[in-house]
Amino acid sequence: MSAPLPAKGPGLPGMPSLPPQQQPAPHGPPAAGPSQTAMPLREISPVFLCRIGQETVQDIITRTMEIFQITRATQLPNGVTQSQALYQDRFGKLQEHLRQLSLLFRKLRLLYERCVEMTSDLQEAPAELVPYVREEVAPIRVEPCSPAVIQERQEVLEKVRQKNQEMKVLMDQMRNLLWDVNAMLTLRK
Q1: Do 12 and 103 meet the contact criterion of CB atoms below 8 Å apart?
Q2: What backbone phi and psi angles, to 5 degrees, belong to 53?
Q3: Which of 72, 107, 125, 170 has the CB geometry, 3.0–4.6 Å to 12, for a possible disulfide?
Q4: Sign of the C-alpha dihedral, residues 115, 120, 123, 125?
């Protein structure tokens, strides 16, 4: 007794083929038949589909970057004739990358639809999307500190103010120095 192997469906390259009983029917309820009684060999989880989707997005980005590299390397027509073979080679590569990109987008769409279908019972549609607004935070009641802690805090704050003032003076001096150097360089030209 051997278990029936899943039929190779019209899937896209790199996408695992689903067994016939798991593939969604295009229209209406599926017809009753012997395939309905067979148990699926392996249930594909939404997590697995998301992982495949992530890899597909990475492939899309890679292909897009390759397309940009090819177009960047292509010289615009400026009256100089290029080799016809070089032009045909680049044109063929661009066509192949665009074809693969189209297939990857279709694969991504199929993965998305399948994930939504599998997790439709888990998702809640938001009633409305509201931009994040900072919520009012209830004031925190702080215990009164000892006078020594308050004194130490004041000293630290004063030191920070002094350091900030020193840094401001240094930044102003550096800005003036750079201004003078730039002025001398422009006068020298």
Answers
A1: yes
A2: -60, -40
A3: 107
A4: positive
Angle at 39 between CA 35 and CA 40, to 5 degrees: 95
| Number of neighbours of residue 129 by Cβ within 10 angstroms | 5
Reading the chain (189 residues) residue by residue, the pLDDT tens digits are: 444 444 444 444 444 444 433 444 333 334 444 444 444 445 778 888 899 999 999 999 999 999 999 888 877 666 666 677 788 888 899 999 999 999 999 999 999 988 888 887 775 655 565 555 666 666 767 677 788 888 999 999 999 999 999 999 999 999 999 999 988 888 887
DSSP 8-state symbol, 40: P
Two structure tokens written together for 104: 């990857």
Q: pTM to 2 decimals?
A: 0.43
